[in-house]
Amino acid sequence: MNKYFKSAYLFGILGGVLGLISFFVLSFFKEDPTTLNLIFGYVIVPISVYLALKYFKDYSNQGYLSFAEGMSVGFVTYMLIAIISFLGIWVLLSLEPDLFEIIKSSKINTLAESKETIVSQVGENSFLATMESVKNMVISDVAINDAIWKIVPGLFFTIIISIILRKNPN
């Protein structure tokens, strides 16, 4: 079983650490690093999944990769990225509550600036409910949101990359 997950551990941890570094560095340059960090996640997750699957195929499985093996290795990879990202962001925001307050106020301001557009598309009640949920946001909400947006594209890219790299023995 370890042969299946050696590459997943390696590239999942690497991707998670890169995601944390991204969040930390972006927090110095932008008052709300969450949006740009999500975009960085859309880049790092597929690269990490691809490298994990390619490494597994070439170095652990004699050049073969079934779809099921690809999905298993990919799942562990993107889940590790999400878990490390969640824990790191949660710890960082817990240690820096001022950064969390800046993120929260930035999201409230963005929502207020877009009020007319949002109300015209989804209605006043939806806007008010969204504004209330953002005002009640806690640190774990920011971390969970980041983790979810590592898992969703991770699943999508794992399926595609597993199909592309699939090679079964004859």
TrEMBL record:
One Pfam entry name: DUF4199
Species: Algoriphagus iocasae
Organism superkingdom: Bacteria
Protein name: DUF4199 domain-containing protein
Assigned keywords, A-Z: Membrane, Transmembrane, Transmembrane helix
Coiled-coil zones: none
Membrane spanning stretches: 7-29, 35-53, 73-93, 147-165
InterPro entries: DUF4199
